[in-house]
């Protein structure tokens, strides 16, 4: 098994960097002065959008839904460092409506906002993973399966468009109700005819963001064998899905397999599981 270290990209790491390369280019071509995006309170995409804006001399406004807790700083601490403005909306509120209102306010103030959707998953954003697919093919021509977490779907869509659906195993994390439709739509927009997707939905557990037992085992195994740090929301579930695929014979010995590490380390420190890990350690001290 090989690991594609997309957790070691810029902006504190993660898969949104490849999408933002294309999304920010599109925004700048349209004359944008400010990037507006949305997500949960610990959105990695929001954090990386804030960093991309800082690098390009743009402003960033992040509409985050949920109940942020300064005792779990995670991505929030980085967003302050990157100089973003955050608008917090309560759980269950209409985030898209709030984003539209923020964009209107910005326009009225003479700014040119570019609104990036949840997870940066437009066809433009997904092009970042079409490029990653080309990179993987060059690095490992005999690659049989790449395994990736699926949130808003752009990552899997780009990989499917570049490698073919039969070489991509997506592991759903429960972020959206219709991941397969989203992946198919985005891959089609990239010019592919995706066919049947290999998308496991057996690792979601109680829901998006909730760590599963299999996910916790995957985190411990990766850390204690390779020093590789996963986080509960995406990568723990992706590795648990890979493990399940080995157990049920979908991935067999000799299959050249790549685990896409999509990042998210800052989010670990914004998740209750981090406090639990530290508590377990101290309880034994
Ligand atoms: C956003 C994210 C994903 C999911 O990527 P999508 O393109 O939204 O499906 C996976 N892992 C991490 C760490 C992420 O932040």
From TrEMBL:
GO terms for biological process: alpha-amino acid metabolic process. Keywords: Pyridoxal phosphate. Its cofactor is pyridoxal 5'-phosphate. Signal peptide: none annotated. It holds the Pfam family PALP. SUPFAM superfamilies: Tryptophan synthase beta subunit-like PLP-dependent enzymes (SSF53686). The active site is at residue 43. The modification N6-(pyridoxal phosphate)lysine is found at residue 16. GO terms for molecular function: D-cysteine desulfhydrase activity. The keyword Iron-sulfur does not apply. It comes from the Bacteria. Residues 2-263 form the Tryptophan synthase beta chain-like PALP domain. InterPro entries: ACCD_DCysDesulf, TrpB-like_PALP, TrpB-like_PALP_sf. Belongs to the ACC deaminase/D-cysteine desulfhydrase family. This is D-cysteine desulfhydrase family protein. It comes from Modestobacter versicolor.
């Amino acid at each position: 098994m090989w690991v594609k270290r997309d957790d070691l990209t810029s902006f504190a790491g993660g898969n949104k960097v490849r999408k933002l390369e294309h999304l920010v280019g599109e925004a700048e071509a349209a004359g944008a002065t400010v990037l507006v995006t949305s997500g949960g309170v610990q959105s990695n995409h929001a954090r990386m959008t804030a960093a991309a804006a800082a690098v390009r001399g743009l402003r960033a406004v992040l509409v985050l839904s949920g109940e942020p807790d300064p005792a779990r700083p995670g991505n929030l601490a980085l967003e302050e460092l990157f100089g973003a403005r955050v608008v917090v909306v309560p759980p269950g509120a209409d985030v898209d409506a709030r984003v539209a209102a923020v964009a209107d306010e910005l326009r009225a103030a003479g700014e040119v906002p570019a609104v990036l959707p949840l997870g940066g998953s437009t066809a433009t954003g997904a092009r970042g993973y079409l490029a990653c697919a080309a990179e993987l093919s060059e690095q490992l021509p005999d690659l049989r399966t790449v395994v990736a977490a699926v949130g808003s779907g752009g990552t899997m869509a780009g990989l499917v468009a570049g490698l073919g659906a039969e070489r991509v195993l997506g592991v759903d994390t429960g972020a959206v109700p219709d991941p397969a439709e989203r992946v198919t739509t985005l891959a089609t927009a990239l010019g592919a005819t995706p066919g049947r997707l290999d998308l496991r939905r057996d690792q979601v557990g109680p829901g998006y963001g909730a760590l599963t037992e299999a996910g916790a085992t995957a985190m411990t195994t990766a850390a204690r064998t390779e020093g590789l740090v996963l986080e509960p929301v995406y990568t723990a579930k992706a590795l648990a899905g890979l493990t399940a695929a080995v157990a049920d014979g979908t991935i067999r010995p000799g299959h050249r397999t790549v685990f896409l590490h999509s990042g998210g380390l800052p989010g670990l420190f914004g998740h209750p599981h981090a406090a639990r890990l530290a508590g377990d350690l101290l309880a034994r001290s």
